[in-house]
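User: I'm preparing a small set of examples for a lab meeting where we compare how different chains pack in three dimensions. I only have the primary sequence for this one, and I'd like the structure in C-alpha cell form so I can line it up with the others. Please keep the answer compact; I'll paste it straight into my notes.
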Amino acid sequence: MKITLLLIQIIVILFFQACATKEVEVEQVTIFPSYPEEPKIFYLATYTGGATEDKASALDAFLGETKSTKKVSNIVKPYGVGLQDGKVYVADTGTDVIFVIDEKTNALEYIGNSSSGRLAAPVGIAFDRDKNIYVSDSREKKVYGYDTKGNQIFALGDRLDFANPTGIAIDKNQHRLYVIDTKSHQFKAYDIATKKHLYSVGKRGTEDAEFNFPTNVAVDQRNGNIVVVDTQNFRVQIFDKDGKFLSKFGNVGNKPGTFARPKGVGIDSEGNIYVADSAFNNIQIFDETGTKLLMFFGGGGFGPAQFRLITGIYIDEDDKMIIADGFSGRVQTFQYVSQKWKLKNPQKYNELKAAPKIDSQEKK
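Assistant: Understood. Below is the C-alpha cell output for the 364-residue chain.
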C-alpha cells in the first residue's frame, strides 16, 4: 500500500512538472520612442563582417530563436549600405570592397575584389529592379554595375562625367539612376536601360536647387521624388522625378529638427524621410514634406542604436533599415513598424508590444 501511494505521488509530481511553464530569462528589446508610446523602431542586429557581434537580437531571444555569433573578417570604415534578398551589403572605404553578408548563415562574400572588377574607393550602393548592384567609386570616378554573383557588367562615367561620385539611388519604377557628384555640387540622372545621361541639377550656392557639397540621395518609390542631402548647407532638398525643385527643410543648429553634419538619407514605404547626422550620431525622421519632425533615435556610444560617426542609411521595401557606423566599423539593422509591417507580422507586433523594453530615454 505504501509503495502504491509513493508511486502515485511520483506520477503527480512528474505530471505537474511536465505541465509547468518554463521560466526563460528574456533580454530587453531596444525600442523607440519611449514607453508607453506606440513602438515605431526596434533594433535587430549588429554586423561587423562575416558574422554578427550580436546576431541573436533581443526580439529573437524573446521569440525563442537563436543564431550563430561566429566572428570572421571585419568591416573597417563602412559608408554606403544596402539590403537585398536576405543579404547585407556594405561599401567599406577602409578595405575598398563591398562586404556581402548573409543574414541567416553569416556567410561572407565580396564584390569588387577581383582583377576584372576591382574597386578603388566604393562609397554608394543601390539596386535596380533586376537586382543588379550599383556601386559608386569616388577614386575611379565611375559607377559600376555588378550582377547578383558579383560579376562586373558595366561601368558608367569617366573623369569628365564625374568629379567625385558619392551617394547613389535608383527609381525602380522610372528605371533611373541618380548620382551625387559632391565636388561638382550637383546630382545627375541616367536612364538605366540605355545608360544615357538625362539631366543634371545644381551648382555651388545657397539658393533653391543649389548645393554645397551634397553627399547622399534617396528616392520615394511612391512618386519618384528625389531627396538630396545638402551637407554643408545643413539642409535637405526635394525634387520631382524630372529634377524640378519642390521644397527644402533644415538649417544648422544643435536641437531637434536642425542639422550639424547630415549624411545618410532613406525613405520608408509611407514616405517618411530619415536623415542621419554624423555629428549628432542619430537619425531624425521627418514627414514626406520635411516640415514636421516625427521622432529621432540614436546617440553616441558603441551599443545597440548607438553610433560613432554615423554615415549611410538604406531602407528596403519591407521597411527594414540598415545604418553604417563609420568609426566603430559596424552596421546595424532596425525595423520600422509601419502599417505594412504590422499587417504582415501581427503576432510579432503583439509580442513586440509586450516585450521588456529599453526605451530611448534609457539609451541617452
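A couple of notes for your slides: The first strand starts at residue 29 and ends at 32. The chain has a mean pLDDT of 87.

User: Perfect, thanks.
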